[in-house]
Amino acid sequence: MAVIWDELEKVQPIAATLLRNSIKRDRIAHAYLFEGSRGTGKRDAGLLFAKTLFCLNISIEGIPCEQCSNCIRINHGTHPDVHIVEPDGLSIKKEQIKQLQQEFTKTAVESKRKLYMIVHADKMSVSAANSLLKFLEEPNAETTAILLTEQIQQILPTILSRCQVVSFKPYPVTLLQEKLLENGVSAHVSLLLAHLTQNVEEALSLYQDEWFAQARKLVLKLYESLKKSSSYAMVMLQEDWFQHFKEKQQMDLGLDLLLFIYKDLLSVQLGKEDTLFYPDQQSHFYTDTLSLSPRSLAEKITIILEAKRKLSANMNPQLLMEQLVLNLQGGSAFV
Ligand SMILES: [Zn+2]
What we know:
By secondary structure, the chain is of the alpha/beta class. The chain is 58% helix and 7% strand. The chain has helices at residues 5-11, 13-24, 42-54, 69-76, 94-105, 126-137, 157-160, 173-182, 187-197, 200-207, 210-228, 230-244, 248-269, 282-289, 294-312, 317-329; strands at 31-35, 82-85, 114-118, 143-149, 164-167. Helix 2 packs parallel to helix 3 (42-54) and helix 11 (210-228) packs across helix 13 (248-269).
């Protein structure tokens, strides 16, 4: 699924404008560094940029045709003058950069122009980074480098100073939710997935994962058992919770799912029912809020956030969940 400029302008207006203008005004930098978290569309933007430079039937507005042999080969990763370097295992090795340089010292196969993209540029070994640096220090007018990273702080300052930095912002949640709905995600989990992942691919894979559907059920079950008594909730933890939320990352997701229930209760109380994470639970939550004060809800939210913090500090998960249950039950709990 190739991204188009209109789409990029919608989700990354600053990056899109900057890149389009640099082509329009013929002021293409020798090296760009696309930085931003996972799923922000850096790679797609890099390919779009390449197609805009190489397309044989570029429109007056500067939109690549997606049909000519250059567009097609860039989409397939087979264009001889467009190279993509990705980590080989855990890192990008010096040999990979050397190989790239060798390719680039030959004249471009089909035109004078060449472009290379280094994915996860922060994963370059020190010697790879130094080789690249030499390359960047001898810029060729017709060669463009695009470095991609999720961790700009890991990029060597000497490399950073030779790149024009283009920042990619996290995908706006409402747009992400729209995209998920377009891709067949059920309305009752779309907002939840958008918030949990901030990334289309990850949200879709979580949606198709039976583990996630079960996790959502179990979190609602824990919430229900908390309404009964702490001993009910303790039994639930032993019988269901710990079997399902085994890894730390899974536990963290479980806590997020629980947190969103209490945020929903607060939204219902404030009359903001149109932005619920669990829209299918609305009437149910409405009944529950009748016996809850906004203050006690805010306290419960704080308790869950505190549990998330303890989890990241490696507290024993068993102890952490038992403490959480007791804390959520304490004070002005359900009556
Ligand atoms: Zn084309």
